[in-house]
Design brief:
7 strands, 266 residues, 9 helices, 48% helix, alpha/beta, Rossmann fold, globular, 7-stranded parallel beta sheet
């Protein structure tokens, strides 16, 4: 974790879940944390909490709906005007949806595409020149194991995460000689508020068994250690990693059969 000593980290989606935990675990090491989310009250409470424990830490909060392209561009301009220069970008903001594609609310689909794909891509594109100004910097893109295969009842979400994983792998190669490392976090089920926000009814339980769930603290610690080591991809939890590895070698024809059988049980 000494890799992050004195860093300035910009973290999106810090009002809860993975983003909030990343901020908490970076706090003892970082010089500055720039925390971005739509929930200003949650950001203010997190800022107070972090600075009470780490009074030497600089915490900057910014209320932003990343789906608003003009607001995102204004945020990047604000960073430059105020001399905030992050050398660690964490693209964590995103949301999901459980349920059949046909019955999905279009506004929620559009929101997922805008946040999971467009906002992440736009913010990364705008900040790469800034990250290049450092001799050593890093990008962490939060994807999902859902992006490894097509998932019925999570079709759009899984597709957005496949995009994030593919983009991250490409950028890692493109930026290899620029001093910017790119790591993709592909978590399985973690104890966060993600499932509650994604489900349409109380009966919706997602697609992964509870036995694969790992504590949020463990997932984030493994992730930050992977970034520090310059790894390309991290799948927290050995059980989840083993399942993901198995899925990656199975022929698509077998996966279709398995997923069709699972879908019929729902």
């Amino acid at each position: 974790m000494n890799y992050f000593k004195g860093c300035t980290a910009l973290i999106t989606g810090t009002s809860s879940g993975i983003g909030r935990e990343i901020a908490c675990q970076l706090a003892p090491f970082a010089h500055t944390l720039i925390l971005v989310a739509r929930n200003l009250e949650a950001l203010e409470l997190l800022k107070i909490e972090l600075q009470c424990v780490h009074p030497e830490l600089t915490v900057c909060i910014y209320r932003l709906d990343l789906r608003d392209g003009k607001a995102l561009d204004a945020f990047v301009e604000w960073l430059g005007e105020n001399q905030w220069r992050p050398n660690f970008l964490v693209n964590n903001a995103g949301h999901g949806d459980y349920g059949d594609f046909e019955s999905a609310d279009w506004a929620k689909i559009e929101s997922m595409l805008a946040l999971n794909i467009v906002a992440l891509t736009r913010l990364t594109h705008r900040l790469i020149p800034m990250l290049k100004s450092f001799t050593d910097s890093a990008i962490l893109n939060v994807s999902s194991t859902a992006g490894f295969l097509p998932i019925p009842r999570m079709a759009v979400y899984a597709a957005t995460k496949a995009y994030v994983t593919s983009l991250s792998e490409s950028l890692r190669i493109e930026l290899r000689d620029s001093g910017i490392s790119v790591t993709t976090l592909c978590p399985g089920p973690i104890h966060t508020g993600f499932s509650d926000a994604a489900r349409r009814t109380p009966e919706d339980q997602g697609v992964t068994p509870g036995v694969l769930r790992i504590p949020l603290y463990v997932a984030v610690r493994e992730t930050l250690e992977a970034v520090a080591a310059g790894r390309a991809r991290i799948i927290p939890g050995w059980k989840v990693a083993a399942v993901a590895g198995l899925v990656s070698v199975l022929p698509m024809v077998l996966l279709r059969v398995a997923l069709t059988g699972w879908r019929k049980k729902k």
